[in-house]
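Protocol step 6 of 9: fold each sequence in the batch and record its structure tokens directly after the sequence line. For illustration, a two-sequence batch is reproduced in full.

Sequence one:
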Amino acid sequence: MKVKGILGALAFAALALLPRAAAAQGDSSARVVAPGVTLRRVVRPEGPWVIHALAVDLGNRELAVQAERACDRLTGRERPSAISKRLNASGMEVLAAINAGFFDLEGGSGATVGNVVVEGEIAQASGATNGAAPRRRPVRSQLAIERDGRPVIARFTLSGTVRTPRGRWPIAALNEPPAADAVTLYTDWSQRPPRVPATMRAVSVPLALESRSGDTLRYRVVADGPDTARATSERGLLVGTGAAAAKVAALRPADRVTAVATLTPDGTPRALVTGWPAIVRDGRSLMETLDSLEGASTAFATTRHPRSAVGISRGGDTLLLVAVDGRQAASVGMSLAELARTMLGLGAWNALNLDGGGSTALVVRDSVVNTPSDPTGERAVGDVLLVTRPAAARPTRSLPAPANVPGCVLAGARDPDR
């Protein structure tokens, strides 16, 4: 779709949301951020609500949608505006950013809850059972940007194996808490040792990365010794728990370990963030019945909160990044059902709820355009979704990232939203 067509379609959709009197008073405004990127602010008095919607023309080959972890690592938090400024200073041109996945704030790690893919590399992922707890929980919906730039909302899970001289085993999790009776792989994205429950038998083997090609990582087992902690943080670690502990224990120094990890369906995308839950599918709200909440509580769905969301147009040629202000006199926030109806009105054919509450922040050219609800302003979060112009390529990533990334928050604090 051409830029002019997108502007017209979005303007029509936004105005359709407004009562005629409100539209006549000029309670909707728009500006072009860059060719193919338009920001609209809509005020709806019946909430009252203040809505900030960014439309991205995915047919514009000068634009790209990417994911980025705070602090350029799996632990720590960073404000979306700080991430944007940091990447702009490194040579990228970041046009916009929005907070993405839910993350650990009370625990202090800042780790994202769910799968994350950055620049085509799986930073963290798991199957349907995540962590040491044996109970199953629903897989949360995720937004993926495929290799061809196509956006998809689906439930992706890890599919992986490790091949060794001692056998071939499935990988239950990648840079996630160890899975019970299974093998978990920690790559150079992981910068702290895994926490294994005291009641669970576990064996770990440090690895040295020899080569990387797409979804394939080739390692060599290194000897355990005084430098093991450094080796595991900078290279890799294979952990076997319970019934799988003996398999990992059989590995010997110099053994070759080949790990192949991808996501299903469709393989590893270019970028991926995890939301919760999907709120619109095929042009219909999923929130009219509470059995589509992917494990979310009724209170979470029905209480009005600040909300962040991402939507995809019917043809898949437009991406919508939406922030709804909340907990303020001018804008009270939305329930998930209200958010779903808003996304439909803005032209979304499919839509996903992202982390909200005090985390809701939409950044345009380094400036926050909405009004975050925390008394301290914009919150440091776990990961973001970015809109960039890839004319200036991102500098080569150096892992692990230094701990002194400006603005990186490593300490936790009680989160009123949790």
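Sequence two, same batch, same settings:
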Amino acid sequence: MNSAQPSTIEMFLPFIFIFVIFYFLIIRPQSKKMKQQESFLSQLKRGDAVVTSAGILGNIDGLTEQFVTLEIANGVKIKMLRKQITGTQAQVLGSGDGTKDKGK
């Protein structure tokens, strides 16, 4: 009796299927998000109100290719990597008035 062995393609089909799932669920969205972040960082300008990855809120006082100087309080400035800027204050805080609809 000959037992039927699967062909090479049939053996690799599950691995190919898993790779396709990983690509569409993990790799593609991550690369899309990275492109959006790079675009956001390239559009930063002086005076923008931003939030850093550490949660520091501030206004951009100076920009270079790699660094950003943030004014976090009157006369208090910090210099940090441009890549550490995660978004604008409006994106993170919403409307900015501190109130949210609590389902009333």
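Proceed to step 7 once all outputs are recorded. Observation for sequence two: The longest strand covers residues 57-63.
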